[in-house]
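anyone seen this seq b4? input:
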Amino acid sequence: GYHSKKDCDFRVIYSSMEAGLSLVIHNQELRCPKLVGIFNAYNIAMAFALCKDLGIDVETIKQSLESFPGVKGRMQTHQLPNDAQCIIDHA
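predicted toks r here
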């Protein structure tokens, strides 16, 4: 299972609008600085689980997820000149 609860194999431990997402999955810490939102955290956890089940190397999975830039127009964050943060979401 995957969730934020302690007894799940794929556990989301932290999500922040400023720092992107940080997760612990099978004792692997992942940092996805371009992604925000709890739905992205759960999507990352499920993608990790699926790739691991398919036999893909954990480091390859980790590098791929950490470098994923996100989908243009979906919870896309921008820093404005006045230091305010703007989020674009066409969903």
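The chain has a mean pLDDT of 81. The two ends are 26 Å apart (CA to CA). kinda curious what u guys think
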